[in-house]
Amino acid sequence: MNNSKRFRVEKPIIDPVAGAYLGLIITMVVWGFVPVFLKKLLAVLTPIELSFTRFLLSGLALLLWVLLRQRPALGRILKQDTKLLLLCTLFGPLAAMVCFNFGILHVTIGTAAMFAAIEPLFTYLLAVLVGQEVWKANRLLSIMLALLGIVLVIFARETFGVTYWVSLLLVMLTPIIWAVNNIITKDIVKRHSPIVMTAVSFVLSSLFLAPALYPNYIQTVLHMGLTMWLALIYCILSTIFGFSIWYWSLRYLPPSTVAVSMYLIPVISVAAGRVFLNEPMPLMKAAGIAIVLLGLYLVNVRFK
Q1: Percentage of the chain with pLDDT > 90?
Q2: DSSP string, 48-66
Q3: 304 near 125, Cβ under 8 Å?
Q4: Which residues, 6+ apart, have CB-to-CB distance to 48 below 8 Å?
Q5: At the N or C end, where does the chain have fewer CB atoms within 10 A?
Q6: Does an H or E element contain 296, and which?
């Protein structure tokens, strides 16, 4: 009688690829709501205070994980690429988030989301200028189409003023800064862990912003109320788990699939701004948003 035990390999509860798709969709939805909570928080915190708080708490949480799991990688990046890391921080999360937070004070979430969405367009143009990518003529029409949509979004309002144009400029700088950051970090991300880079950049950003805080900052944060704390926690957790799921998804899905999923964010942000902040959505703006998304799809997917 054969008493040998038979072992069977247990299948995972959920297929990794299916899990990656699900995680990616959830992440895009979560990130799509972040601008709404940021705008709520700006009612009690200044743009500098909000940026500092988000950088500090998110950065410390990520840094703790790095110290527990990737301590050698942290030492390696600090030893080999300190200057480049500082440059990536200044022309990356620090400048981009501060500009965005100042911009959405007087610009709707829908408009800000559209400018954030065109970051791949600026990245491609800059990559062509520095020789990292080759210019493709069939992308020109798609780029012009996306820019036409942006023009419609900008002018889809009844009144204009200096405050609006300055805020619009700050929001427009956000995707340009991220595009510059993508060019700068092209080589460093090949040598170092993106999670380690993000953790260090966030902590450095908070240190750079600390001198600009108001003396009553701590009192403001401690007394801003439960609702605002929940909004802040949402933004922090979306950063920590969002990036973790993003990089985990890259293990099972093609980079192009992960990149295309980003186009869900502006759609969700526009809808969230309309529902929760009662932001206006005139026909001209809706048409502009649709044209921008079509242009971005053609530039980054169809004619890539």
Answers
A1: 33
A2: HHHHHHHHHHHHHHHHHHH
A3: no
A4: 98, 101, 209, 212, 213
A5: N
A6: helix 283-297
- Is 296 within 8 Å of 140 (Cβ atoms)? no
Instruction: Name every residue whose Cβ is closer than 8 Å to that of residue 222 and which is 6 or more positions away in sequence.
Output: none
pLDDT digits (tens, 9 = 90+) for 202-248: 999 999 999 999 999 999 999 999 999 999 999 999 888 877 776 67
- Furthest-apart CA atoms within the chain: distance in Å: 90
Task: For the chain, list residues with pLDDT below 70.
Answer: 1-14, 158, 246-247, 250-251, 254-261, 299-304
* Element housing 162 (H / E): helix 162-184
**Closest CA relative to residue 263, chosen from 232, 285, 240, 295:** 295
Q: Which residues contact 71 (CB under 8 A, 6 or more apart)?
A: none
Token digits of residue 167: 């805020």
> Please, are residues 93 and 205 in contact by the beta-carbon 8 Å criterion?
yes
User: CA-to-CA distance for 133 and 125, rounded, in angstroms?
Assistant: 9
Q: What DSSP letter does each residue of 74-120 carry, written as one string?
A: HHHHHHH-HHHHHHHHIIIIIHHHHHHHHHTTSS-HHHHHHHHHTHH
DSSP track, 223-264: TS-HHHHHHHHHHHHHHHHHHHHHHHHTTTS-HHHHHHGGGH
Cα–Cα distance, 233 to 239 (Å, whole number):
10
